[in-house]
Amino acid sequence: MSRLQKAAWFNLGMSTIFVIISIPGLYFLARVNAKGVEYLLTCFIVVCVITPVFYVFYRKKSFEAGFDEREKMINKRAFTCSVVGLTIFLGCVCLIPFFVLGGQNVIKVFYLPLIFISALFAAQFIQSAAILIQCLLEEEDGQ
Amino acid sequence: MGSNRLSNNLRRLRFDNGQITQRQLADRVGVTRQTIIAIESGKYAPSLPLAFRIAQTFEVSIETVFQYENEDS
Fold first, then answer.
1. What residues of chain A lie within 8 A of the CB of B31, using their CB?
2. Residues of chain A positioned with their CB less than 8 A from the CB of B35
3. Eight-state DSSP code of residue B69
4. Would you call A21 exposed, middle or buried from its count of C-beta atoms within 10 A (0-12, 13-18, 19+)?
5. Rg of the Cα trace of chain B?
6. pTM
7. Interchain CB contacts (distance < 8 Å): A and B
8. Of A87, A113, B68, B72, which sees the most CB atoms within 10 A?
């Protein structure tokens, strides 16, 4: 397994951990209706959530320094896939409620950070999957 | 419109030069073994600097390693 594939698996794992940590935290904040001073609690949870994300980006940067030109090209293609996927994801997430509920309806504020976290995860998932699929296709004829 | 193809003699050159492995060649030119595999199988066309580095490793001209085939010509 190449460094690129290891990096893709690592990012996939870290983004999954990010979602696993942040969704229950967010659900808890929504239940207690955190606002005002309670943001201190929010900040604590955000730090707990953001730290692994920084770790992901830090590791990614250090990994990229060791990538060769083919791996950088694969990464670039995967990034393009992730941007397209993210656009489609956000389009669906924003437009489906609009068409289903109608323009004059309301949704809970709780859904906004949920959409944000889901979008981050979707982008990372698509990028990692695109890297792994490209590597798999290239290695089919490998030895 | 014709198709273009970049073929190579990488495998033959490796065996003609002391049977060096894909890993050894990759280390010498500064890429991963997967990249050498991709180049050998014709799935990846290397950049010009990498192509020169590979040719220099075998001490041959770049045309000896890579051949450009254009079906139009």
1. 68-70
2. 68-71
3. E
4. middle
5. 12
6. 0.74
7. 39
8. A113
